[in-house]
Every structure is written in C-alpha cells, then in structure tokens.
Amino acid sequence: MKNQRHGVIRDLLIKAQVENQDVLRRKLAQRGIHVTQATLSRDIKELNLLKGPAGYALPESFAVPEEDDDEPELADVLGNFGLEVRQAQNLLVFLTTTGGAQPIAAHIDYEDWTEVVGTVAGDNTVLIICPDNKQATALKARLDGYIG
Description:
By secondary structure, the chain is of the alpha+beta class. It is built from six helices and six strands. The chain folds into two domains: 2-57, Winged helix-like DNA-binding domain superfamily/Winged helix DNA-binding domain (Arc Repressor Mutant, subunit A, Orthogonal Bundle); 74-147, Gyrase A, domain 2 (2-Layer Sandwich). A hairpin with a 2-residue loop joins strand 1 (50-52) and strand 2 (55-57). It starts with a helix and ends with a helix. This is Arginine repressor.
C-alpha cells in the first residue's frame, strides 16, 4: 500500500501544484487513499520531497524536464536508478536506489521485450521474470549495459 501511495504522490506532483500537506492529503483522498497527517509526513520525508514557495516538488531525479513532455528515456531511468542486476536461473533481481524500482519496472514493462514475462517492483528491487535461462542471460547483459 505504501509503494502505491508513493506512486500516486509522485503522479500528483508531476501533474499539479501541491501547496501544502492538507492539499496533498485531500488530493490523495480524491483518489481513494486516506492517510493521517503523520503518515503523510513520513511519506514526504521518504520521498525526499522538496518544499518551496510554490509548494511540494519531487527531487530532480524524478522530475520531468519542463521542455520535454515525453516520459524519460529507458536509458536515463536505468542509468539514474539502476545499481546491479543479479541472475537466478530465469529470474533477474534488479537492485535500484531507494524509490527507483517502480519507474524501472514501468519502463521495462512498456518496452514489451520478448525476454520479459513480467516484473514485480518493491521499493528498491525489481524482480524480472524471463521465459528461460538463456533469455534471462541475454536480458541481464542488456541491462548491465544501461547501468554500466
């Protein structure tokens, strides 16, 4: 539930200005997510949100450049958040920075690669399921190339 809530908070901050915690709490409630002020304060701290004169903002690593309306490129997301890829037979465990797993999993899902059956994202780990060991090995090499 926390990861889902964090994803919604990120989405809200990308799409609209959020002046204060009460506005953020109300916007979350409109999406069916009801939280206490204490929980929201913890979320703000965990997400490293910035507070400025206009309200809350995402750290630069999550922000979409104003001049570019497109999603960040896969290479950018993997390079910014990816730390290490480990293989266990047909499974890949992709270690990320804190909060980086969901953006990486989403980008991998959108790529629609034949080597990927599906992904499961936590906070700092993505499980990538491949059809077999050979395809997992090929995908690991590709992902390693993105994260250097």
